[in-house]
Amino acid sequence: MRVKRVENRGWIRLYLPTIFAGMWVTLKHLFRRKDTLQYPEQRPFLGPRYRGVPVLVKDETGREKCVACYMCQWVCPPLAISIEAAEYPPDHPLHQIEKYPARFEINMLRCIYCGLCEEACPEEAIFMSRTYAVVGTSRETMIFDKQTLYEIGGVRPDEIRKWSPERKGPPARSHVPPQALVEPPSLHYPADPAGGCGRGGVGSSSMGLPRHLGAAALAAAWAFGPAAAAITGQVVDERGRPLEGAKACLLVAEVEGLCAQTDEAGAFVLPESRVPKMRIRMDGYVPVTLPAVTQTRAIVLERAAVLRVVLREKGSGRALAGGQVYVSYTTGRQLGPFPANENGVRVRSLPRGEAVVRAEAAGYAPATCVLKLVAGEEGVCTVHLERHAGDPRD
């Protein structure tokens, strides 16, 4: 292909036509309406779908809506959210909610404002605000704690009112007769497999589709399955002592539905059900899955072990900000993945025995460590990951 060369004439060498053309464009806009905003006195208009800083909100009564279910932490792509849960005491007015976030932090330096945390939240407790001006003098100030998130988020009325007195169900489930619990299971709050509470029968989150499918399957099994007697049983530890406060939950598609709590004698009563499985769990013990039938023998829960894994870069010893941890046993059982941050990861309710911990992180070769997990004790494993050769960050 031939390109015709423009002859460089003398009047073009002066650049005057080009200068005058640019000045003419400037003069045309000189007398038009100004679109410049005097920031920060004047702020730009933000659309209704604008995604700003993620914040936590409270309802109109001042109750924090977050129940520490870890859904937002698990769905966050850059691992910017860190949660530490705590349980309400039995005499607390909100003890039926089970848990609340003792620590909730969002690293704004990592947040990519994708909005997945808002979509995944089953309690509508976290929202993408319209705040976009985030400034800090250090990395520490850019990690927003729970108090800061509530100050920005403020109060948002609860339209669902799932935990209101008329919706929360009997306050002491373990001492209520079975006939008082016979109602559609979607009206009860389902417990999260990781130990938290999920969305009940009402909600609008598109990311909660598997949980809604599990609740639908639970309701279908309740309505169309063959009738069954009430489910009873007793939960004890390895020494035969009754465990008070353990939870027995009906299980459909790996989603926990209706739950009952054991009393002082370790006994629980679930209403008639057509669900095939149930899960027995308690903090500090290894959960077990059993057929959803009356247990003639006592259900024994083994004391669980706690594992803390720290990921560090081989050579420099620098803590790695992100990664995943898998736990494997000699029996072939594998658990995980468990997301890790710069502080590592702490996994509770693990079976005891010889375990192989495998850690993975982007840009690093996987590494393992072997340790023996002892019941009632915390095992610590530090995994040193070697960076891949030719990594652009070298």
Key terms:
394 residues; alpha+beta
Characterise this structure.
The chain is elongated. The protein has 394 residues and is an alpha+beta fold. Helices cover 14% and strands 29% of the residues. The protein has a 4-stranded antiparallel sheet with strand order 8-7-10-11. It has a 4-stranded mixed sheet with strand order 16-13-20-18, with no helix packed on it. Strands 15-14-17-19 form a 4-stranded antiparallel sheet, with no helix packed on it. The protein has helices at 10-13, 16-30, 71-75, 116-120, 146-153, 178-181, 209-224, and strands at 54-56, 81-87, 99-107, 126-128, 143-144, 231-236, 247-252, 255-261, 267-270, 277-281, 288-291, 299-300, 305-313, 323-329, 334-340, 345-350, 353-360, 364-365, 367-373, 378-387.
